[in-house]
Amino acid sequence: MSFRSPVSEIEFILAEVAGYKDVVMTARFADAEPATVSAVLGEAARVCDAVIAPLNRVSDLHPAQLENGVVRVTPGFDTAFAAISEGGWIGLAAAPQWGGMGLPETVQFAVNEMMSGACMSFQLLPLLSQGQAEALDAHASDEIKALYIPNLLSGAWSGTMNLTEPQAGSDVGGVRTKAVANGDGSFAITGQKIYISWGDHDLVDNICHLVLARLPDAPGGTKGISMFMVPKFLPDGDGAPGVANALRPVSLEHKLGIHGSPTAVMEYDGATGWLVGPKNGGMAAMFTMMNAARLTVGFQGVGVAEAAYQKAAIFASERTQGKVGGTGAIIEFADVRRMLMGMKADIFAARAICYACAVALDMSRATGDAAWHAREAFLTPIAKAFGSDVGVAVASEGIQVHGGMGFVEETGAAQFLRDARITPIYEGTNGIQAMDLVGRKLMDGGDAAFALLDEIEAGAEAVRGAMPILGEAVWGAAENLREATEWLLTQDQSARFAVSVPYLRAFARVLGGHYHLKAADAVGGAGPRAGLARFYIERLLPEHVGLLSQVRVGDKGLYDLSVDDLLA
Asked: Which of 184, 225, 272, 337 is the most buried (most CB within 10 A)?
């Protein structure tokens, strides 16, 4: 079975659930009406389904290889990358002055989702270039912008993000890579970076590394980190790739999944680089790249979940076992039906949350309204964490639907789980996303959270006449979450961090109920969408009760076992 991009599902969520109509009403995006978006998504789906998806299994079986200092990628990736480069798919949302199309980020995220479902390891390559172009546009000098951004968007060059070092993972303040001024405006960069996605490959003419490093007089911690552009080949006077820079891939990681994406250990030995942004301002510049990447990781989870679900549903409809139902196919079995409906319901919830966040991002940029910015900021950790968790859970359930054949690699079902498993880890672990949610994102006294809860309750009130049971359930869940949020705001950091993960999960569950309810209302409360909403609200939404009971415990008992007890 080949992957089919879920264009109609995305269009429904944009039109009826996520509020894309608000984006079109702004002056900035007035030309991005639904008909235009539909045409873009339709063509992108053709590329994803016909060109990229056939490479997914190939990328798993034929991973990137480091040979004589050069990284050779999966066969066929060159053709796929040429297709997305020539089609302008890397720069959909970038400014026209740099060669982009100027479309809303929501549209770019939609294409990224479909591309992730087709082949996640391949999608990481354009994702990194998109994020780097955005960071350069916001922080780099005019000279760097003019040289690098058009090349990144055209696919002539590609970008990377170099944060992590052997001793500095989530604690970015521990970075030791050094930057010393050369006296001509450039800097000599020396150090080692690990986990560098697409750190080297043979698909482009130049690879542009954004590297975090410390100047000699920099203060300690994150306040002393600067960001530098360090290209693989130094541009000559005409801006073309010239002599090789003093950097190299030392090795490639042997990973659980995303085998087609080369994850490199990069060594910089006095490599020439140029400052991006102010001295000691590297974290602000890097977060510009990371924030968009975090939302895209949520979409990656949704994309892989969609692919895993499609494969599982087709298998269940064709696999006969016993005499249940008219066909004898296992899709008629109650437990298989439960799994498939749960998968489908969670994919819808995660997808809706991600697109609601994307719309808030576009509205923030188009209007400058602080309320939209607060909503985007609040939803980002939820979208990243829940989207990636759903990707892992649905991929795992897909194996279960396949039964023993799911455990056999030749079916391809296991690849989805192996590929998706990185998403709760990179671009900030889901635990860090949860800490961010209960920490910085509640520093407004809960205003952004309560604004969302007000919207959820208003939506539930509006449908109580037509769907009283479902409306009451969603309204009650929102009230439970409101009370838990009010209580959490009275707690110290230790108590908040201890329960941040169940709090984020509970918020996602309630948001999912809200968006399912909106979908059911949009179709008149009947039909498959209403049935799926009923399944989610009656069977999955109640999970929030147990999660919020954990929240109320705070940090009590979390340290009752000593380190020795844990190691015993």
From this structure: 225
